[in-house]
Design a protein that fits this description.
By secondary structure, the chain is mainly alpha-helical. The protein has two domains: about 290 residues, Fic-like fold (Orthogonal Bundle), CATH 1.10.3290; about 70 residues, Winged helix-like DNA-binding domain superfamily/Winged helix DNA-binding domain (Arc Repressor Mutant, subunit A, Orthogonal Bundle), CATH 1.10.10.10. The protein is built from 15 helices and six strands. The N terminus is likely disordered.
C-alpha cells in the first residue's frame, strides 16, 4: 500500500458554516455520494487484510490476549467520548474478569456500561439482516441497561433533544420526536437494500442514525455498535479484532465536525473517507500484532492442512484426520496432532479409540455461557 495510507488526511476544512446544525427530513432516504478513486484501493486493501487476519493461526491464550485488548480499547473509546470516566486500565481489568468467567458485583453506572458492551460482543444475539426499528431498540436496551436513571433502555424518545458541548454550546438539533418513526423506517428500508459496499453502507447508516437521534441518550454508543455489527454482517467479519474506535474517536473534534458537516451539506464522501482511513489503520495494526503470534511458520504442510480442516468442523476423530492426508502413517499423524495440542491450537477429549480433537476456540465456551440481561 502507498505510504500515504498510513496517515489520515486533513479534514480540518470540512466543518459546518455555523452551529447548531439541524436534522433534515430525508424520506424516502436516498443518499448519493461520489468517492475518489483511492477509495477503491483502500476498500480492496481492507478486504485483503480481513482475509489475512482470517488466515492466522494463534495459540488459544495468545488469541484471547489480543481479543481482550481489542475489545477493551474499543469499549473504552466508545464510552469515553460519551462521558464514562473509567480509565483504559480499568476497562482492561473488567474485560479480563468478564472473559475469565468471574462474577462481578456492579454498583455504579460506568461499570455497568462497560459490562453491557461486553455482553453485546459475546452474547448470542441474532442481528442478521434485514433490520427494523426494533433492532436498534434491542441494542440500545442492552447497552443502556441500568446505566442511567434518566433513560429508559430501548424506548424511543418523545421530546425534542439537542447535542450540547461542554461549554453549553448547542451543536445539533435532532429529528423531531413525531418524525422519528417515519425516519427510522425509511433508513431501515434503505439499509436492507443498499446498493453500496460494506463500508459505505455502514457509514451512511451510522450517520443517518445519529442524525435521527432516536433515543434520549445512548445514540452514539448504539450507532457505533450497530456500525460494527453491520461491517461483520456485510463481509468484514474480523473487524471486531481491530481497534477501530480508537482510530476514529481519538480525534474528537474532527469526528464531530464531519458528522455536522455531513448533516449541513448532505455530502457523505468526506465522512466515508475518514471512516475508511480509520478502519484501514486499525486493520494494519491488527495484522501486525496478530502476525507476531502466528504459528503457521512452525508447521509443515500436513499440519497446516489439519488446522484448516479442523477450523471447519466441530470435532473430528483420528480416523477422520487420516483421510485428510493420504499416505500419512498413523504414528506420524498422531505425533503431529499431539504437537498441535502442545502448541495450544488443538484440544483433545476422551482416550485412545474414543479420542476426539477440535480446533481450540477460546471464545466458544464464553459465547455459549454468557447470557445478556433480560431486557431483550
Amino acid at each position: 500500500m502507498p505510504s500515504e495510507y498510513h496517515k489520515k488526511g486533513d479534514y480540518s476544512k470540512f466543518r459546518p458554516v455555523g452551529y447548531p446544525v439541524r436534522h433534515k427530513r430525508k424520506v424516502p432516504f436516498q443518499p448519493m455520494l461520489s468517492l475518489p478513486l483511492e477509495y477503491r484501493d483502500m476498500l480492496r486493501e481492507i478486504r485483503r487484510l480481513d482475509a489475512v487476519l482470517d488466515g492466522f493461526v494463534l495459540g488459544s491464550s495468545d488469541y484471547m490476549d489480543l481479543v481482550r485488548e481489542a475489545y477493551a480499547v474499543n469499549i473504552h473509546w466508545t464510552t469515553k467520548i460519551e462521558g464514562n470516566r473509567l480509565s483504559l486500565d480499568e476497562v482492561r481489568k473488567l474485560t479480563t474478569k468478564f472473559t475469565s468467567g468471574e462474577h462481578q458485583e456492579v454498583n455504579n453506572g460506568p461499570t455497568q456500561e462497560i459490562l453491557n458492551h461486553l455482553y453485546s460482543f459475546f452474547a448470542q444475539i441474532e442481528l442478521g439482516l434485514p433490520w427494523d426499528a426494533d433492532t436498534a431498540c434491542d441494542v440500545h436496551a442492552l447497552l443502556m441497561n441500568e446505566v442511567s436513571e434518566t433513560v429508559v433502555p430501548g424506548e424511543i424518545r418523545t421530546e425534542e433533544v439537542g447535542v450540547f458541548g461542554s461549554d453549553g454550546t448547542e451543536y445539533f438539533i435532532a429529528c423531531p420526536p413525531q418524525s422519528i418513526g417515519e425516519a427510522l423506517e425509511s433508513l431501515m428500508e434503505w439499509l436492507n437494500s443498499s446498493p453500496y459496499d460494506e463500508i459505505v453502507t455502514a457509514t451512511v447508516f451510522f450517520h443517518e442514525f445519529e442524525s435521527i437521534h432516536p433515543f434520549k441518550d445512548g445514540n452514539g454508543r448504539t450507532g457505533r455498535t450497530l456500525f460494527q455489527i453491520l461491517l461483520q454482517e456485510l463481509g468484514l467479519r474480523n473487524c471486531k479484532l481491530c481497534m477501530f474506535e480508537k482510530e476514529m474517536l481519538s480525534d474528537t473534534s474532527t469526528y464531530y465536525d464531519l458528522l455536522a458537516f455531513t448533516d449541513s451539506t448532505g455530502s457523505y464522501s468526506q465522512l466515508v473517507m475518514y471512516v475508511t482511513e480509520s478502519l484501514l489503520r486499525a486493520y494494519q495494526a491488527a495484522v501486525e500484532e496478530f502476525g507476531k503470534r502466528d504459528r503457521l511458520a512452525e508447521m509443515d504442510e500436513s499440519m497446516r492442512l489439519v488446522v484448516r480442516m479442523a477450523k471447519g468442523v466441530t470435532e473430528f476423530s483420528f480416523n477422520e484426520a487420516m483421510t485428510w492426508i493420504p499416505g500419512i502413517g498413523a504414528q506420524t499423524l498422531r505425533k503431529k496432532l499431539d504437537k498441535l495440542a502442545d502448541m495450544d491450537i488443538l484440544q483433545k477429549s476422551g482416550r485412545t479409540r474414543q479420542m476426539r480433537y477440535s480446533f481450540k476456540d477460546p471464545l466458544s465456551g464464553l459465547r455459549s455461557s454468557v447470557k445478556p440481561p433480560s431486557v431483550l
